[in-house]
Each structure stands twice: as C-alpha cells, then as structure tokens.
Design a protein that fits this description.
This protein is α/β, with parallel strands linked by helices. It has ten helices and ten strands.
Length: about 300
C-alpha cells in the first residue's frame, strides 16, 4: 500500500515536472516570438523611414526644386489635384521628362514627413552638402566679401529651414552646420525654407571651432551672438568679410566656440521673455549686416 502510494506520488511529480517544462518552453517561445516581432517592426519602421527619407514636400518647395534643375527621381501628386500651382508642377515635370504618379491623398499623407504636403511630394537623391571652400569661391565669383552663417547646434529642423530662407533672401553666400547633434537637411527643412535650400550652399563640418579658425585664416571676422555680452548688434561694425555664429536654441553658443569668436553681440530684450527664437535672432543680425553693407556702398 505504501509502495503504491509512493509510486503514485512520484508519477504525479514527474507529470508536474513535465508540464512545468512544457509551460517554460511555451513561455520562452512566446518571449522569443515577441522579441522577433518587435525587432521586425523596428526594422520595418527603419526601412519605411529610409524609403522616403529624401523628399521635398509642398507646392512652393517642389516648384523651387523644379526651377533649380536639380535631379528629381519622381513626383507624387494627389488624385484630383489638377488646379493652380499643381498644374504648373505637372507641366514643368513633363517638360523635364520627370515621372509624375497620381496617388490617393491618404497614401500621400502616409508618405509625408511634414504632415502638410499640400498634395505633392517629390522624391529626390540625397541632399548634397558642399565644402566650405565652395562657399568662399561663390563669394569670390560674385566679387563680394564672404558673408556666412555658422550654426552651432541648431536642433529644430523648422528653425534650420527658416534660417536658410532668411540667408537666401539676404544674399548670404553659405550656411555651415555641424555633423553631430544638429538638424540636417531633410523634407521638413526644405519645406520650412520655402525651397531656399535649393539655392543655398550648405556645408556640414566635423568641428565648428576648427572651421572658424579656417575662416579666420581666409580673412573673415567672426561675430558670435550671446545674451551675456554688453554690446548691442547695431553698435558693432559688421562690414567686410563676416561670419555670424548662431547658437543652440536652449544652450546658445558653446564656450569653446564663443572663445573663438572675434567679438560678441546681443539683441536688446525689453519684455519679460529673455530670449528670441534662433531663426528670428538670425534674421535681425543678418539684416543688420545687409544694412551696413548698403550704407558702405553709398
């Protein structure tokens, strides 16, 4: 009797062990499956991001792109959009033998990176940055003193786009941005610049401080913007070869870059808010340079 009981208990324990092992295997399998699905989803998202990484959105931006004669792989337009500037885009694209594909508006919205593509998206090759020498060469070809904007860590693509737009309208020869911890030229930047990206030389450098030293050797004066300095921008002589340094939206110019500037200027603040948007600050200082250059010519 005791022997049978003992055997029965042992058999039950073995069965329970077997069940536990099966449950463990199932649990492990589920965990592995969840990891695999998660990995696949990440990979799929990365592929989707890469698929439409280089695109220009919005009617004005695509028109500027077409008129710049730069390479365009394909243009997508929303079905039914056959009026106004869309007609002009389609006509120019046909002249340039660019493929135009009609898509449902919902599909275009899924492709869009700016959330407001205005019914048109152009797929383009990756943006081609230039070298700093190309910017200096452009100034020389135009027989003008170099006028350059140097961005020390602008992270918001909308700010970058707005700054490029201001730079283009003010006759700036080029914009310099860092390779790390900063916004790069993408569809959002292009749209925020209203297509000015297509007409502006933009250099991407490894080290902003080293680039400033290089520009100094080429004869440029480097002007930094800093709220802590004493001199207002309109009291500073900004004529001649000039580089204007604009700092990060939150931190401003880094200490190392600040030390490399020939002089620092600030914009007067009269209200309770102690700082301006980076793009607005750029516009104010850049157009002071434009004003002083015009007065010098007179």
């Amino acid at each position: 009797m005791n022997t049978r009981k003992k055997k029965s208990n042992m058999a039950r324990r073995d069965t329970e062990k077997g069940r536990d092992k099966q449950q463990y295997k199932k649990s492990g399998y589920r965990q592995e499956k969840v990891k695999a699905i998660s990995k696949e989803n990440r990979k799929s998202k990365e592929n989707d991001d890469q698929k439409f990484e280089d695109q220009v959105e919005g009617r004005n931006s695509v028109l500027e792109l077409l008129e710049s004669n730069k390479d365009i792989n394909k243009i997508f337009v929303a079905k039914g959009e056959k009026h106004g500037s869309i007609n002009k885009i389609i006509a120019i694209a046909k002249e340039q033998k660019i493929v135009v594909v009609e898509k449902d508006r919902r599909q275009l919205e899924e492709m869009s990176q700016t959330e407001n593509c205005q019914g048109v998206i152009a797929i383009v090759p990756p943006y081609e940055y230039c070298e700093v020498e190309n910017i200096l060469k452009k100034a020389k070809e135009q027989n003008e003193d170099p006028f350059i904007i140097i961005l020390d860590g602008i992270e918001d693509p909308h700010n970058l786009g707005s700054i490029i737009r201001t730079a283009e309208t003010a006759g700036v020869h080029g914009v310099i941005i860092p390779k790390r911890r900063a916004a790069t030229v993408n569809s959002t930047v292009n749209k925020a610049s209203a297509g000015a990206v297509e007409h502006m030389k933009i250099a991407r450098v490894t080290n902003i401080s080293d680039t400033i030293e290089e520009l100094k050797r080429e004869g440029l004066w480097i002007c930094g913007t800093d709220i802590e300095t004493n001199k207002f921008y309109y009291n500073q002589d900004l004529r001649g070869p000039i580089g204007i340094v604009i700092g990060n939206e939150g931190k401003g110019i880094s200490e190392k870059v600040k030390k490399n500037c020939d002089f620092l200027v600030k914009i007067p603040m009269k209200g309770k808010i102690e700082s301006l948007n980076a793009a607005v600050s750029t516009g104010i200082v850049v157009y002071e340079v434009v004003k002083q250059r015009k007065l010098e010519v007179k």
